Amino acid sequence: MSDLGLLVETARPLPQPRVITPGLTTGDKVFRFLAAAAAASVLAILGLVALFLVLEAEPALKVSGLKFLTTFEWNPDGTPAHFGIAALIYGTAMIAFIALVVALPVAVGSALFVNEYAPVRLGRPLVALLDLLAAVPSLIYGMWGLYYLQPHLQGTSRWLTDHLGFIPFFHTTRPVFGSSMFIAGIVVGLMVLPIVASVTREVLSQAPRGVCEAALALGGSRWGMIRSVILPFGRSGIVGAAMLGLGRALGETIAIALILAFNFKITTQILAPGGGSVAGLIANNFGEAGEAQRHALVAAGLALFVITLIVNTVARIIVNRTSKGKMED
Amino acid sequence: MTDIPMADVRIDTAVLSTGPKISTSGGGSLRADGVTAWFGKHCIIAGVDMDMPAGSVTSIIGPSGCGKSTFLRTLNRMHELVPSAAMAGEVRLDGVDIYGAGSRPALMRLRIGMVFQKPNPFPTMSIGENVLSGLKLAGIPCRDKAEMTERCLNKAGLWAEVKDRLGAPAGALSGGQQQRLCIARSLAVSPRVLLMDEPCSALDPSSTKRIEETIREISSQVTVVIVTHNMQQAARVSDYTAFFLADKGEPGRIVEFGPTGEIFNAPNDPRTEDYIHGRFG
Ligand SMILES: Nc1ncnc2c1ncn2[C@@H]1O[C@H](COP(=O)(O)OP(=O)(O)OP(=O)(O)O)[C@@H](O)[C@H]1O
Ligand SMILES: [Mg+2]
């Protein structure tokens, strides 16, 4: 049988592939054009934004050169002009990190509860509620953080510095708490919680059911199943979800502008007033900025744009890989 | 009440880890009494009575969708894991109702193991870790891990093929090897009963033969209940056979249950005869 097939193949030359016409109707063609235009416009907008940032940032970057990324003064209008965003990048990263420390355990916990423990009747509303958190405008979070959370976290901050002060991050020189990176980080953490939780939930729900059942059928508890099957399966997906949250946290503006007592220092004392972030800097200064200041701020924006683009892309790649690669158990 | 069975388990493993005594431990007797199961309002099986004596192999046959898997899953409390699932009746392991007040589902599943239709080794663990995973999950200490791994893999007829690569990921095995690994994993916790839901349906004839041999070998130590669509397999491996059937829109019921020889050679019910000889819708 296979011998025969081989014979036929060698005897006859391979044909050219035929041209197949898709046979689209006029309606199809119009719709295809519109859809393609919509898709192209998304790319065009992204490109235009990048182009604008580069062009507008260029005068400032010419003045400061590489110092823009390594120094931490902010005086673009002075003569000579000095400005760099090192402290702000540090502050942005620190706040985003605190946000993740707050958001990730809650996200993983809620995802596991909804997927593995909650009865369907409780799980559905819980998911809806969690997603609703994402719909609350960040201004509201900022105000709530400033007027409610800040006074209520005084005690926590004091306790942390009293008992865990030996850890550099919890050390404070003066017992003044508030307007700190700690509080800003917590508020941003609450803001990014919904996205981290919903991606985590999605990724963990992809864990192969058959393998989960195997763990239970061996006499494992729910927790045993989670530890031996679900978490190892979802590990990289959780990392991806965290990075998506990180992408959001990096760009968060309002809460930080409201809460933080802005300065341009690099400090480990996250409980003390002070700190800064790139997005917060732009929000605070863009309105009354002069020519030189404006270029410098756009340059800061460009840095933020590049960082978030990288973080989000990496996160998407990780999330997609976990949810596709392990579909089949 | 809940502590007492746990102590039993420890004794079981003590017996197991001293080695030779295992052959005398024997399987447990399992008895289903009026077992009825639902998904939501939909009744899947009704009034199933079945006696599976210690150390026997019982096969369950019947057309697709008649509730064989559902019945099997009521026998080790896997059924209740589906949110809408409900059941009635009793399942007695050595005379004790596994659904009784104070009996823990996890402990019942430890004693009544299960092998699934689709091989499902833990993909993130190595072959060796898979064998011992049940002990770890149930928190049962194991003194001689190497010896335990070898013995269980031997019983499942897999040792010769994997002894040089116990550290390799379980996913690297073929489907038939994975299924035998799952059997080894189930045997490591020394269950009293082993439930098998079409364990050979995804396997080639030689892997199937290996698993049938395994079933015959382990049946002196553990009671086996196997669901199969393969009549020859049921005839070859089992001591008793139950024929399930669900009429249209009706829950599945037992049509006939008895010694395998009788069911296959001289069935009482014409429907059994029709099914066995492939004259059935
Ligand atoms: N999780 C579930 N939810 C709702 N209905 C279910 C569920 N699982 C099975 N059923 C229904 O229960 C009935 C019996 O299913 P079951 O899997 O027990 O059949 P089976 O005899 O094992 O069939 P097969 O030989 O094809 O494996 C089917 O009608 C099926 O649709
Ligand atoms: Mg089935």
Quickly describe the structure.
Chain A has 329 residues and is an all-alpha fold.
Task: Give structural attributes.
heterodimer; A: mainly alpha; MetI-like fold; 1% strand; disordered C terminus; B: 281 residues; Rossmann fold; 6-stranded mixed sheet; 4-stranded antiparallel sheet; 23% strand; globular; binds adenosine-5'-triphosphate; binds magnesium ion
Write up this protein:
The complex is a heterodimer of chains A (329) and B (281). Chain A contains 13 helices and two strands. Chain A has 329 residues and is mainly alpha-helical. Chain A has a domain at 90-275: MetI-like fold. Chain A has a two-stranded antiparallel sheet. In chain A, helix 4 runs antiparallel to helix 10 (222-251) and helix 10 (222-251) packs antiparallel against helix 13 (291-325). Chain A starts with a helix and ends with a helix. In chain A, 39% of the residues are buried. Mean pLDDT of chain A is 85; it is low at 325-329. Chain B is of the alpha/beta class and 281 residues long. Chain B has a single domain, classed as Rossmann fold. Chain B has twelve helices and ten strands. In chain B, the strands form two sheets. A six-stranded mixed β-sheet of chain B has the order 6-7-8-3-9-10, sandwiched between helices. A four-stranded antiparallel β-sheet of chain B has the order 2-1-4-5, covered by helices on one side. In chain B, a hairpin with a 2-residue loop joins strand 1 (30-39) and strand 2. The longest helix of chain B is centred in the first third of the chain and has 15 residues, at 3-17. Classes of the chains: A mainly alpha (329), B alpha/beta (281). Chain A binds chain B through residues 119-120, 208, 210-211, 213-221, 224-225, 228-229, 232-233, 326, 329, and chain B through 76, 78, 81, 83, 106-107, 109-111, 113-114, 116, 118, 120-125, 133-134, 136-138, 182, 185-186, 189. The structure holds adenosine-5'-triphosphate (ATP) and magnesium ion (MG). Adenosine-5'-triphosphate binds next to helix 3 of chain B.
